[in-house]
């Protein structure tokens, strides 16, 4: 179906029907007239900017029309960029400025290496991630079959962490001395937790293990 | 009675008119008022640098002291405008250097500024005071050195979000020792470290310094020394807010902050170590503007800080604040007017934080003065939008970005037409709106019917047909800027509403269905519009007329076609139908 293009008067306001208005319009020159040497009649023409296509008021007909047009039309494809290592990304979406984009890349890179997001809890979370305020790591106690999970982000010191572990595994007082807290770092090495400052520990811990003192291990 | 009002009196009366709109009205009264007004207009604002030429401006307004200008279309912020498109300020600077020797202020947004421009500015205007470069590019720190060295009366140097080629931090040392006029310095976008002692000395000899926005490279340990020299600061942007946790640093910082009795705005906060946040607590009660949008700290740390700022009016924050944090904000900050929540992981497939539509609903309920919102989230419902609309009928700016394109109401799986419809119907003062999510032509009908004060509308991945665009163009009486991407809008609505485009500043359409033929027709029939096709696939003539163009930018102008177009921009006008390029 061809698009009919016609020039016609705009369906805008009916001009000059008010005699007073007419009178004033005659007296007062418009800007173009006064200062750009445009004649009055030309000014009127200028202001009667004409639509280049008459919008068909019949909505139903329009939808049909549009349907047919759509078939012939090129359906716009999402502007896709290929310059990302992971899945394709639509250019300029979401609409964040370049500053913020760079900044976000930095954050996500850091999160991957410092375990600030919930690395151990992927997939099983269901609706919504755990959020950036959790840092769950697996904890195994030697001699106990079941591995537990612990949110490290709520702890600020070895003291509170140890207290939590004791409570979690129900270790009685006399047995507390028998266990050492060890942790696996980013490189995969097992280290003694209390050998390093808390800050260092929290930035590199991947999992925890309570080992019986008698056990020897290598770092 | 003879009309014998002396010109000087009229001029004096006009000097009280600051709004351009008022001055434009005054100019239309009669020839003599036009003449008087044009000689005493001191400030001009050019919303689109290609809408008018330097010659025309200078001819009409010979005594201008302050120029503000914008270049690239807004979507350039999101990489939708190719490099080299334009927005060069040089021709303006060159013309003004001859015509306006007394020029004091230049404020530019999204323009290309070269070192040559900066040098010309620094040498041409003896009384130069204010340079604001917002989201500009094309210059290096060498250009900044010229400004620092030569502008003896410099008051403001603000580089907000500009892309500067950072050759070294040495530029700051070019401020002469006798330069004491600085009121505002914003170098937050720069990467390199400046000489700290030069910075310290500059701050110390600037008694009028009110705004200081440092860059990330300024270490926290040294911040206290700087602040101590400027206790009169009203706005402070920190550098990196992290250091080894030491009590002496903390004490120093706490003392320095507590001396700043006038502090109202805080920003910066890269790499925040929460242990240092309490250093600021003493100033929180006076803070009205807080930009934590680079602070990657957890919700409870954010909440601790924000809930102390009882007089907060503006908050920019990352989505780490989560729904719970926003609820706390809503309870504590009853003066809040503007909220912007930015995504920490915009490209991640899964949500990384617990921030949903609920957060925004809480704030809309709890903050009676809320009028400006920019919110990135991953789910939205019509119910939430309706709630927000009913809570805040005085909303002026509402920009919602649901990260997944075409995401429906997550509860009902319906389009979000009803929700956004409620926004435009209830918020009668709405001036700016950005849509997202699954939307049909219906939402545009609501917008066309109700959004009578809407000036700027951003649309992406929405609508079904031309009817959508037609509703907007025919209904939104106050519309000035319309930007559209990836929508099935084509020729019909555009051509039927061609006249509307002359009442607007500009129209941007990319990845839509506007054909080359329609662009040509529009360009030929509308001489007061520049109709520019941006297409990186080569000349549009090499493809059939029915082929859609990649990008279309239409704007009204009295300057005629551009003469500085790059090879991928074609102008459609009645001369040879756009065959010619630049």
UniProtKB/TrEMBL annotation, chain A:
Organism superkingdom: Eukaryota
Pfam family, one: AUX_IAA
Name of the protein in question: Auxin-responsive protein
PB1 domain mapped to chain residues: 134-215
Lipid biosynthesis keyword on record: no
Protein family (similarity comment): Belongs to the Aux/IAA family.
Subcellular location: Nucleus
Predominant location category: nucleus
InterPro entries in alphabetical order: AUX/IAA_dom, AUX_IAA, PB1-like
Description of how the protein assembles with itself and partners: Homodimers and heterodimers.
Keyword match Chloroplast: no
This protein's UniProt keywords: Auxin signaling pathway, Nucleus, Repressor, Transcription, Transcription regulation
Species this protein is from: Rehmannia glutinosa (Chinese foxglove)
Region (Disordered): 1-28
Function according to Swiss-Prot or TrEMBL: Aux/IAA proteins are short-lived transcriptional factors that function as repressors of early auxin response genes at low auxin concentrations.
TrEMBL record, chain B:
Keyword Transport: no
Listed SUPFAM superfamilies: F-box domain, RNI-like
Keyword terms, alphabetized: Auxin signaling pathway
Domain F-box: 5-46
CDD domains given in the database record: F-box_AtTIR1-like
Listed InterPro entries: COI1_F-box, F-box-like_dom_sf, F-box_dom, Leu-rich_rpt_Cys-con_subtyp, LRR_dom_sf, Transp_inhibit
Record has Cell inner membrane as a keyword: no
PANTHER family reported in the protein's UniProt record: F-BOX/TPR REPEAT PROTEIN POF3, PROTEIN TRANSPORT INHIBITOR RESPONSE 1
Protein's name in the database: F-box domain-containing protein
Organism, as annotated: Rehmannia glutinosa
Record lineage: Eukaryota, Viridiplantae, Streptophyta, Embryophyta, Tracheophyta
